Amino acid sequence: MPSKRLTESFTNPPDYAFPHHRLSRVLRNPEKTPVVLVACGSFSPVTYLHLRMFEMAKDYVRQNTDFEIMGGYLSPVSDMYKKPGLLSARHRVDMCTLATEETNTWLMVDAWEAFQAYQRTAIVLDHFDHQINTVLGGAQTEDGEHKNVRIMLLAGSDLIGTMSEPGVWAYTDLEHILGRYGCFIVERAGTGVEQATDSLARWRHNIHLISQLIQNDVSSTKVRLFLRRGLSVRYLLPNAVVDYIDQHGLYQDEITSSSPVIVTREKGADKDKESIPPPSSSTNGILQPSS
Ligand SMILES: Nc1ncnc2c1ncn2[C@@H]1O[C@H](COP(=O)(O)OP(=O)(O)OP(=O)(O)O)[C@@H](O)[C@H]1O
Ligand SMILES: NC(=O)c1ccc[n+]([C@@H]2O[C@H](COP(=O)(O)O)[C@@H](O)[C@H]2O)c1
Question: Where do the record's region annotations for Disordered lie (predicted)?
Fold first, then answer.
C-alpha cells in the first residue's frame, strides 16, 4: 500500500465493539488478495439497492479480479452529517441491522461513525483497516500464511460523482481513499460511471466500475416520499425494515402538499431532482412516471 493511515488514534463511541461475526478470516484461495467492502452513506432508510450493491460487487470480484471477499459492511453516517431526511442514527443502524441479518450471511453493520461526531470517509476506511488488520490481525491462508486484508470503498456512481465537485472532498482524502484503498463503483441511473470518474483518472487502476445489468432506480429519497404519501414501500426494502418503519411511525413528519414534491439533493447532476406527482395528479390512483 502506498501510504500510511491518516490517523492512528481512533475515538470509539461508548460501549463500542467492532462487529466481526460474519467476517471470514481464512482465505479459500491462497493466491487471492482478501478484501472487505465498506459502503458509507445515510441509509435513511436502507433499501434493497444498498444490499444489491454488495451482490453486484461480489459477482464483479469473482469474474474480474484476484480478490476474495472476506465480508462487507454498511457504515451509516453520523447524525452530525445533517443531511435532509436523515433519521436518527439509532433508527438507521437498527434498520441496517435488520436488513443484513434477515437477508444474507456476509454483511454486517458497523455503528462506529454513526454514534459519534462526523468522520470523513478516509478516516472511516482507516478505522476498518485498523480494526481488521491491526486489532484482528488480518486474514490467513489455510496453511497459516498471514495476509493483510485490503479495505475498499463500495459506492454508487452518484457518490463518486461528488468527488469531482469542488469543496466536497479534500485532495489528500481522495488520494487516501482512491490511492491507498481503492473502490468499487456501481452504476446508478442518471449518473454515468465514466463521466463520474473522468477527473479521477490518476487513480484509475484502483477504481473498479460495475455496470448495473438490471436498471433499478430505488433511492432512500423516493422511499421517504412514498412513506409521507402513505404509499406502500413493501418489496423496495426488506420486510423487517418495512415493519420497523411502520411500528415506529417513521418518515411521517413532513405533511404532503397538493403540489408535486420535489426533492433537490445537495449533490449536483440532473438525477438529484426526484419528484413524485401528488395523489390528485395521478390517473386512477396510478402514479405517472416522473421525468
Ligand atoms: N439505486 C442505487 N444504485 C446504485 N447505488 C446506490 C443506489 N442507491 C444507493 N446507492 C449507493 O449507496 C450508498 C449509500 O447511499 P445513500 O444512503 O446515500 O442512499 P440514497 O438512496 O442515495 O439516499 P438519499 O436518497 O437519501 O440521498 C451511496 O454510495 C449510493 O451511491
Ligand atoms: N470528505 C468526505 O469524506 C466526504 C464528502 C462527501 C460525502 N462523504 C460521505 O459519503 C457518504 C454520502 O452519503 P449520502 O450519499 O447519503 O450523502 C457519507 O457517508 C459521507 O460521510 C464523505
Answer: 261-291
3-class DSSP string for the chain = CCCCCCCCCCCCCCCCCCCCCCCCCECCCCCCEEEEEEEEECCCCCCHHHHHHHHHHHHHHHHHCCEEEEEEEEEECCHHHCCCCCCCHHHHHHHHHHHHHHHCCCEEECCCCCCCCCCCHHHHHHHHHHHHHHHCCCEECCCCCEECCEEEEEEEHHHHHHCCCCCCCCHHHHHHHHHHHCEEEECECCECHHHHHHHHHHHHHHEEEECCCCCCCCCHHHHHHHHHCCCCCECCECHHHHHHHHHHCCCCCCCCCCCCEEEECCCCCHHHEEEECCHHHCECCECCCCC
Distance 155 CA to ligand 1 centre (A): 8
- Which among 40, 177, 263 is the best mutation to test ligand 2's pocket, defined by most ligand atoms within 8 Å of the CB? 40
Residue whose CA is closest, atom 31 of ligand 1? 156
Check if 116 has its Cβ closer than 6 Å to any atom of ligand 2. no
Indicate whether 121 pLDDT > 50: yes
State in Å: Cα 131 to ligand 1 middle.
Answer: 25
Tens of pLDDT along 7-64? Answer: 988 999 999 999 999 999 999 999 999 999 999 999 999 999 999 999 999 999 999 9
Flag whether the ipTM exceeds 0.85.
yes
Mean pLDDT, rounded, for 237-245: 97
Q: How confident is the model at residue 158 (pLDDT cuts 50, 70, 90)?
A: very high
Average pLDDT over residues 182-208: 88
Q: Is 182 in the pocket of ligand 2 (CB under 6 A)?
A: no
pLDDT, residue 259, reads 35
Please tell me if the CB atom of residue 95 comes closer than 6 angstroms to any atom of ligand 1. no
**Ligand 2 nearest atom to the CA of residue 120, by list position:** 3
